[in-house]
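Appendix B. Extra example for self-study. Work through it before the problem class; the solution is given directly after the inputs so you can check yourself.
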Amino acid sequence: MFLPTLIALLHGPDQPGLVARVSGWIFERGGNIVHADQHHDREAGVFFQRVEWEARTGGEGADPAAFRAFATGLGMKVQVTTSASRPRVVVFVSKAEHCFHDLALRWREGEFSGELVAVISNHSDFASVAKGYGLPFHHIPVTAETKAAAEAKQLALLGELGADLVVLARYMQVLSADFLEKLGRPVINIHHSFLPAFAGGRPYHQAHARGVKLIGATAHYATRDLDEGPIIHQDVARVTHRHGVDDLIRKGRDLEKTVLAQAVRWHLEGRVLVYGHKTVVFD
Amino acid sequence: MFLPTLIALLHGPDQPGLVARVSGWIFERGGNIVHADQHHDREAGVFFQRVEWEARTGGEGADPAAFRAFATGLGMKVQVTTSASRPRVVVFVSKAEHCFHDLALRWREGEFSGELVAVISNHSDFASVAKGYGLPFHHIPVTAETKAAAEAKQLALLGELGADLVVLARYMQVLSADFLEKLGRPVINIHHSFLPAFAGGRPYHQAHARGVKLIGATAHYATRDLDEGPIIHQDVARVTHRHGVDDLIRKGRDLEKTVLAQAVRWHLEGRVLVYGHKTVVFD
Amino acid sequence: MFLPTLIALLHGPDQPGLVARVSGWIFERGGNIVHADQHHDREAGVFFQRVEWEARTGGEGADPAAFRAFATGLGMKVQVTTSASRPRVVVFVSKAEHCFHDLALRWREGEFSGELVAVISNHSDFASVAKGYGLPFHHIPVTAETKAAAEAKQLALLGELGADLVVLARYMQVLSADFLEKLGRPVINIHHSFLPAFAGGRPYHQAHARGVKLIGATAHYATRDLDEGPIIHQDVARVTHRHGVDDLIRKGRDLEKTVLAQAVRWHLEGRVLVYGHKTVVFD
Amino acid sequence: MFLPTLIALLHGPDQPGLVARVSGWIFERGGNIVHADQHHDREAGVFFQRVEWEARTGGEGADPAAFRAFATGLGMKVQVTTSASRPRVVVFVSKAEHCFHDLALRWREGEFSGELVAVISNHSDFASVAKGYGLPFHHIPVTAETKAAAEAKQLALLGELGADLVVLARYMQVLSADFLEKLGRPVINIHHSFLPAFAGGRPYHQAHARGVKLIGATAHYATRDLDEGPIIHQDVARVTHRHGVDDLIRKGRDLEKTVLAQAVRWHLEGRVLVYGHKTVVFD
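Solution. Structure tokens for the complete assembly:
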């Protein structure tokens, strides 16, 4: 028999008995919890939970809407996903190809709990590369004058594609606050720097000029405040005086690939809960 | 009002409803869960849990024995500790002082959920150093001939001291299987190598001879099979051809300190569950 | 004007004045040293040097054979390469594709000081993938019975291709000592483990069974003693009880890619000097 | 026979033959180079070198002033130290003791090529701890009103002590530009953050508020521009939502200790060359 798995991410005001109530509700409806992780931010008085269960008997225990209603009744904000549906991912690219290849190869290896369904680019360079992976490629040029129209076209396309997640794989255009709001879906960006250091452009040149001994990369959700979105993952690499700006860029590419892939993997497995401008990552 | 906190570590055959039953039991007895973490080893069919709660109303919810009886009834093996009692730690040392100083300083900084209560050594070198930290020092020499008698003396002393944990901070004597069995308390050892590589003596010389590019250290519970005890924590450091054996030893000292301290911290916070010859660390 | 760059790797018995003699020889013949790194193993009494210079005036200073004769006269073993010729690299693969894609993409990004010139495989799976990168693909099946004949075929092909380096990108056949000797060219292998731990097969299963907290990968030169070749590079990743064997394999793939690529990059830049069964890496 | 070792750090305009001239000068004066490392910043056209030699015959080859004159004649800036004299280090502390203990214990283990000769503090807390290590302790209180006078006193004391290096081991007073200039000796500071992120006060609170996934520490030379001095060493540690500010502070202490100790070790071994507001570290 096929057993759908449900994953819920909850947060809200802390109160005694929340773990018992949630697990009781699931158990009474035939669910078997296979993973559960809680976090209590005691200063803020907030409760966070990720709970994953097998719905062994169908019915309410297999119904995301039923759980959502229950959790909302506890005063919680909640997101529920089910293994019956795999999230659809659209990748935005420009001209740098390392992150795109990395995502496509990992997807093909089965590393992601989701499907890459299309590639959108402001350049036409990747048309054949995308095809090589069996991915539809959409070229939507963007200039200062056409930006609003281009974003409207992107939004329409994302709607048609049924996109659940947008990944900016070194997409070199800033998405407008209006676009993000209308999209209403999460957008993951890779910032080629250890934020908050070196926010802004050419971070490897900045890092080289400052003489830092570590460079980094940061994957975060895109928000209207550029470089201020909730951080999902970060990593660093060691550099020395022997490394020129070119070496920093090469090492940075490796960081960007692995940090972005990890963030996308966690997101697709329902492990990332956004709270204010921070994240709780249930790894 | 003083709220005692209880921490339980459970494991046993997986079955539906375990999370609900445990959290329900705690909630109904006035407990408020402040942390809970579960792990299901699905291949082995084993359930693991660490649950920490505030006993707000006293009674059964504040009684380790009551919880123990409940969990045993579910077919679980269980350990319960309470914030009302702080574990008593005895440190065994020989002549290398880096791990000992590190533990003593961290203890004084308040990093450990436990008390250092005494130092036992087969040498007399640390008598005044121990005194400097306000720690009673016991010199119990060990030779091949006197080993059995020395271990008997150590056991008697550990009994008097009410030791809950023994930490071997580069203690250069092998404890007999008989000693470990009679002690019946956990013993944490720091192995100056990345196990299973370079088990045995002089690992830094072995590593240098083999030309490895990383050296490591491993903290584990001592068992009758030397170097085979359940691993709690490991870490590595990068080395190059420019590092001689002396440099490896120096870098190794740093690894040994931090790896041992982390293992002791986790153990004292009730985060380490031993299962077969492996550990589940609820960090 | 085109300035060829020469890179020499030297080692031999230490003696006063070696640095002065080598740099003097280069300077007097119009060479400008752009990098130089020395290492003295004082216990063994051995001198190691990597020196890279621009031959500004041609003549002897631009002639690898002239330098070789000079260095040999000093009692040194020496290898000289020149930027006028780029090493030719042949990649051996079987069915795992992550390392192969990683190498091919990095080569295309210009990360390597050499050329990928062909792919040899004991399976036919990668024929079209190789073609996608513009790389000739040679299918040479290997069975226990045909092994000797297959190796003869590989050797002939490598000769025709003018291979300077063979990279085993998760090639699942052991190369015979006879093959290695007849080849007379370096072969870099990626061992999917932190050597010397878990030498042999299925290291991720071994690591999971032992409960280690770190897994690793090792790039080394292939020698007749399997798993005992000189180590070029190693790295590790942290794992926990939450990671099953599949997760270890996935994390292992990432390690294998980056560790192998780094080893190949260093080798192609003339940074790796083999000495006994160890390496000196002038990074 | 005692063989003094000399270490020179040079930098200046690049020109052909520098390596040959320097090594030739040393060889002709009976010196045997035991380590040499060069770096050419080709964009800036600057040559950097660290060279270490045994002066086997005395005379000019053993005379720092002679080498200094020679190198200056080549247009280089140069610093020469000799093993005949061990640098004298004075440690400044306030109330946090982790870095101080760490430095004192490493010094006692023989990890540093220099001598701790005194402790200066704006508080009296460490008087007995310093004594425990056999180190003279000087209490010089500092208030806004007495700052100038206190600095004058510190300068006089450092002069008497013959200090070659000042280490700020979490010293919580800003040293004035005037003080630094009059001192004319290097001052190493540990900044409890990954610079340039979170420059300024309470970096662990800042990091927690921003939700970063890595915290860091930076050792740098103190300059008149606070937090802008040349960086010697940096490291980071991973944090999650489960870590409160207290945990960040605890993890930060470990980073601060190891990063400061590494910077001091490198400085004392003559491995750190300051160039503009960056460093070249010949590790």
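Self-check: The mean pLDDT of chain A is 93. If your reasoning did not lead you there, revisit section 3.
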